Amino acid sequence: MVEQATHPKSLERNRLEPEDAQEALEHVQELLRRQHLVEELVHRQEVGDTRAPLVEALVQRQHDAELSALLEDLHPADVAFILESLPKEDRQVVWQLVHADRVGEILLEVADWVRESLISTMDQQELVAATENLEADELADLAPDLPPEVVAEVQKGLTDEERARLTEVMSYPENSVGAIMDFEMVRVRNDVTLEVVLRYLRRLNELPDHTDQIFVVDRLDKLQGSLPINRLIVSDPDTQVTDVMDTEILTLAPLDEADEAAAAFERYDLVSAPVVDAIGRLIGRVTVNEVVDVIREASDEQALSKAGLQEEDIFAPIAQAIRNRAPWLLINLCTASVAAFVASRFEDTVGHIVILAFLMSIVAGIGGNSGNQTMTLIIRALAVGRINAANVGKLVRRELQIAVLVGLGGGLVAALFAWAISGRYSLGLVMMAAMVLNLLVGASIGMLVPLARNRFGKDPAIGSSVLLTFATDTMGFFIFLGLATVFLL
């Protein structure tokens, strides 16, 4: 017996290459610019009072028709890219021109911060129409951003099986495997021949996306193994499924972390992986397209977190952007003030040896850059699960050794430079010692901050750069000026 979980969704449009999407964005921006120009001319009444409204209406109709045609030919992901790249006012103009039957699939593609702004402009009837034809897993992705009454209305039009699936997906945590799995898959029983499987597959319009294997289950839907598509094609059609299937396959649990699943896909070069419940029943699968989204989102969050930022609309109101950025900037201001205070305590030293004021920024800057390299390495290793209790000690020793060696090499160059411009070899030795010590500070903070935050279940990247800069600036000034006070005065 052969079963297909759901009918695969068809992809009617080809996605554009990135440069083509960029060209489409530029085309849209040019059309919008022309439309704004006409509106300004009409407002100034440069074409005459009687003809102005007619000219504006004709030009707008022409632009709308051209925009609509352009959007209709684009893949939903490329329309999403355009929407994310436009200011809010232009975004709404373009959104109004998107064909109604494409709204749902585009909402799935846009970033969360754009999705919220688009949904806020739609009434309940429009939202229901946009989402009523989505699959259960797709609807679950949108549900957190939809009004509860819209979700309730859409659920009324689902079958009992679809409603159960929607409830199941929505019950899992946001960053879990269960939240990203889908139900589109082909499964077979192990007591049929490959000929039976092939005959069934030929009756389908197409296979679900990213089908590289067919899952083998028993009569209770418990996963027995998988039948790779390439093996199905080349094997004798009279062979039993049980004789050629793989029994040693990687499986995921719905409560596994999505990041861990992504790491498994990367490690084993997977295209799809089955998701099984606690008793081994096949309940869904995760495909590489979902994993790519997980990796991209994690990468974006990490890049923003290092600077103390949260994801925001690049065209968000200024007040909102300030609320997002100000907290860590204020923290940075405080830490910079501490560093300046430390430097001010050595006013007499700097007064006697003025060149110290120029050299101390080198010590602080090199320490910060080196520490940032270490921190980036640690955060990346934590993200892919390569650091654990067994190897963290060895990693710490390695990074400290690297800091010492780099500090000695760089410090020697800096010492020669300091000696050349000052004529004092003692200043060069102080410069070298300060660089070695500050590189050790940078390496230590670069490891300590992300490791400590990860140990307590926090994002290791959040605010890490700010704290690193504080440590290397403050300690760099203190170490360099302190050594100069002791050995040069």
TrEMBL record:
<keyword id="KW-0460">Magnesium</keyword>
<feature type="region of interest" description="Disordered">
    <location>
        <begin position="1"/>
        <end position="22"/>
    </location>
</feature>
<comment type="subunit">
    <text>Homodimer.</text>
</comment>
<dbReference type="InterPro" id="IPR006668">
    <property type="entry name" value="Mg_transptr_MgtE_intracell_dom"/>
</dbReference>
<dbReference type="GO" id="GO:0015095">
    <property type="term" value="F:magnesium ion transmembrane transporter activity"/>
</dbReference>
<keyword id="KW-0812">Transmembrane</keyword>
<keyword id="KW-1003">Cell membrane</keyword>
<keyword id="KW-0472">Membrane</keyword>
<dbReference type="GO" id="GO:0046872">
    <property type="term" value="F:metal ion binding"/>
</dbReference>
<dbReference type="InterPro" id="IPR038076">
    <property type="entry name" value="MgtE_N_sf"/>
</dbReference>
<comment type="similarity">
    <text>Belongs to the SLC41A transporter family.</text>
</comment>
<dbReference type="Pfam" id="PF03448">
    <property type="entry name" value="MgtE_N"/>
</dbReference>
<dbReference type="InterPro" id="IPR006669">
    <property type="entry name" value="MgtE_transporter"/>
</dbReference>
<dbReference type="InterPro" id="IPR036739">
    <property type="entry name" value="SLC41_membr_dom_sf"/>
</dbReference>
<dbReference type="Pfam" id="PF01769">
    <property type="entry name" value="MgtE"/>
</dbReference>
<feature type="compositionally biased region" description="Basic and acidic residues">
    <location>
        <begin position="9"/>
        <end position="22"/>
    </location>
</feature>
<dbReference type="InterPro" id="IPR046342">
    <property type="entry name" value="CBS_dom_sf"/>
</dbReference>
<dbReference type="Pfam" id="PF00571">
    <property type="entry name" value="CBS"/>
</dbReference>
<feature type="transmembrane region" description="Helical">
    <location>
        <begin position="350"/>
        <end position="370"/>
    </location>
</feature>
<dbReference type="GO" id="GO:0005886">
    <property type="term" value="C:plasma membrane"/>
</dbReference>
<keyword id="KW-0479">Metal-binding</keyword>
<feature type="transmembrane region" description="Helical">
    <location>
        <begin position="461"/>
        <end position="488"/>
    </location>
</feature>
<dbReference type="InterPro" id="IPR000644">
    <property type="entry name" value="CBS_dom"/>
</dbReference>
<feature type="transmembrane region" description="Helical">
    <location>
        <begin position="402"/>
        <end position="421"/>
    </location>
</feature>
<feature type="domain" description="CBS">
    <location>
        <begin position="245"/>
        <end position="301"/>
    </location>
</feature>
<feature type="transmembrane region" description="Helical">
    <location>
        <begin position="427"/>
        <end position="449"/>
    </location>
</feature>
<protein>
    <recommendedName>
        <fullName>Magnesium transporter MgtE</fullName>
    </recommendedName>
</protein>
<comment type="function">
    <text>Acts as a magnesium transporter.</text>
</comment>
<dbReference type="InterPro" id="IPR006667">
    <property type="entry name" value="SLC41_membr_dom"/>
</dbReference>
<keyword id="KW-1133">Transmembrane helix</keyword>
<keyword id="KW-0129">CBS domain</keyword>
<keyword id="KW-0813">Transport</keyword>
